[in-house]
Structures are given as C-alpha cells and as structure tokens.
Amino acid sequence: MSITGNYDHYHRSGSAGSGGPDRPERCVCCVRTMKWFPVLFIVSVIGWSYYAFVVQLSFFTVTSIVQRILFLLFYHLILIMFLWSYYQTVFTDIGRVPSRFRVPRTELDRLLRATSEEEQKQILEAFAKELPIVTRTLNASVRFCEKCRLIKPDRAHHCSVCGVCVLKLDHHCPWVNNCINFTNYKYFILFLGYALLYCLYIAFTTVMYMELIWSVSGSEGKVDGRFHILFLFFVSLMFAISLVSLFGYHCYLVLLNRTTLESFRTPIFRYGGPDKNGFSLGKFNNFQEVFGDDRKLWFVPVYTSVGDGVCYPVRCFDEDAESLLSGELASSQQLHHPNRQQRNGHRGRPSSDYSNVHQYRNGAVHHKREPLVHHVNDDDDDDDEDEENVFETTVFSHSTNLLH
After folding, report:
1. Is 282 left (phi over 0), alpha (psi -120 to 50) or beta?
2. Is 148 a catalytic residue?
3. Is residue 87 scored above 80 in pLDDT?
4. How much of the chain is in helix, strand and coil states, percent to nearest 5?
C-alpha cells in the first residue's frame, strides 16, 4: 500500500467518524473493560492465596508462635514488593514518541501531492535527516509509521493493541493490560522476580505441613482448610515452574540488551546491517541501562533506568564497511583509506562516545551520524503488526490451562 493511499484513508476516516453513531464507542468501552479481566484474575488469585496462607496455614495450622511470626513477616515483605512491582507495571504510562518525530502537516501535504515514490522518499529523507536514528528497515528505509504518521525512533514499534508507537517496545502483555516498554521494563522484570519468589516461598512453607494436614482428623472446617492449603501448594508450584522460564528468558534479554521483538527480528543498522548485538554495551552496562547506577535501588520498583528511550549507544563499524553498506563506494571516485591505527580508533564495543552508559542519561548523548538516502516505502510497519502481538509465552495462561 502506498503512502498516499494511506493518507487518503486517514482523511476519509477522520471526516466520517465525526458524525457517526455512538455504537462503536460503546463497543470500544466494552473491549477496554474486557482487557482488565486478566488483571482482575491475577488480583483474585493473589487475594485467595493471602487468605489460604495467612488464615488457613499461619493461624489455623501452624502452632508455634515464633514460626507463625516468621512466616507472616517474610510473607508480607515479599507480598509488598510483589504487589508494588505489579502495580508499577500495570499503571506506568507507556513511553510515547516525542513530537519532533511526527511528520508535520505541511510535509504530509507534500507527500499527498508527490507524483512518485522517489519524491516521497526525498521528502521524508529531508525531515529525518536531523533526527537521532540509526536503524533501518529490510530495504534500508527510514522506519516510518503510516498509522501514527511519524518517524520511528530506534527500538520503537507500533503496538496494534494500544494503537500508538511505543518507545523500546518489548511486547504487549495482556496480564498487565499494558505495553512492556522503556518506561516499565524494570518494573516488569521485578514483577516476574518477586512473583517467582512469592510462589517459591509459599510452596516451600506449605510442603512442610502436607503430611500433618492429612494425618490430623478434625472438624469439617479443618477439612475445608486442608483443601485450601493443598490447592495453594499446587497452584504456587505450577506458577513457579512457569515463571522460572519467563523470568530467566527476560534476564537473558537484559544482559544482552535486547527486547523480545529484537530477539525475533534482528535490528538493522544504517552502518553494519543486521546486528543482534548492536545495542549491547557489555553485560554490566546492559544491566545498568535497565536498573540504573544506584545499587540500593536496583531491586526497588522505582524508576532508575538510564536514558530517555529515544537515543541509545550503538556499536561502531569500520569506515570501509560503512562505505560499502551505504552504497557510497560505487559512486566515490576516490576513497580515503585510513591506516590501521586510525581505523581501529573507530571500532570497538561500545564506541568511545558511548563507552560510559551514564553519558546518555536524560538524552544527553545523541547520534551524530547523518542518515542515508534510501527507500521510503516502509515494510517495517506491517511486520510490527505481527511482532508486537508477540506476548510472553504467557506464564499465566499456561497456568490457567493447568487449573482446568
């Protein structure tokens, strides 16, 4: 689909939607309400587990006062961190693309009047030239979102569920009813970690009383309590098994500085082409990019991530390789071949400009590379529609299936 065709569709839909019936609005409200059902399910499971552990296990089953106090103390500490992380993951606003990446109305009108794709390409090239972007599409084009009508920053993608482009989009998670992205990725990792710790703690504390529960005969109320504790043990164990793989996978992504989308499709750079490790700064710096440089706050669900979500340090490449990849080698009559020492000065991981991850906190560092002339027709947007619906291997849906 051409860019012009999309914009004609935007204009028609924008003018037709102003006087339409309110039925579509009611449908949208219903859909938005249904999106909260997975969150309500998780909250309900947590509420039931609180009753089963605190009331049925700690008060009705545990007889030692000291052991009861210790059980409740550690349980509530883990529960607070778990719920805090979950709250932050759910209610943190997504990282939206800054307005300077949006193509202005005058440029859009020029795109509509353009008579060829080459002319459209030149219009977007001129606009994107001043933006700090280094990634491209498969056909070496600027990553342009036809739905949001903006140039996508590096690592940003369009979320078909939220309907907007999101900074450093990892995936859209239905269990938090939110995009996992630059603004809440730390919270999401902590949520997975504390959820795993919560499940393991419950499983290990309840398993000690499994034999006692079934060996002691009692009233009907105590029999009902036994089933609460028994069910609590198996549910916590089931969730823990599912969370181990999901939490471990995202820890792996953090250390490699990748998102879930980037693990499925390698980012393509203006210089160097596809490079799955293009954003990697080394494991410790990758960890600091998400968790910050204050060690005391690494495992506290408060915002400490480094950067602004728009500019990222990248690896540098050999100047000769840059010339080959940009197509400048064929058109150049004379090339300057730096000596080995000069060339090595432009290589490295990370580059000298970005060797310290703190240098680009709050957007202090911007990419200085000028974009190339390339094709405008962006196939990346259609690919995003499929990739941004890559949910995590849904630990909770897997667990729900086991429940049934």
Report:
1. left
2. no
3. yes
4. 55, 5, 35
**Which structure tokens are listed for 45?**
């499971």
Model pLDDT for residues 313-342, shown as the tens digit of each residue: 887 654 444 444 444 434 433 333 333 333
Helices (H) and strands (E) in the chain, counts: 16, 9
DSSP-derived letter for residue 149 is T
Partners of 102 in the beta sheet?
Answer: 150
Tokens representing 174? 């239905």
* Number of residues that make up the chain: 404
pLDDT at 366 over 50: no
Residue 75, H or E segment: helix 65-91
Percent of the chain with pLDDT over 90: 46
Residue in 159, 165, 173, 199 annotated catalytic: 173
Q: Is the pTM of this model over 0.85?
A: no
Cα-Cα-Cα-Cα dihedral sign, residues 192, 198, 204, 206: negative
Tokens 């996978």 belong to: 249
H or E stretch covering 203: helix 185-207
Maximum separation of any 2 CA atoms in the chain, in Å: 94
The SS3 call for residue 190 is: helix
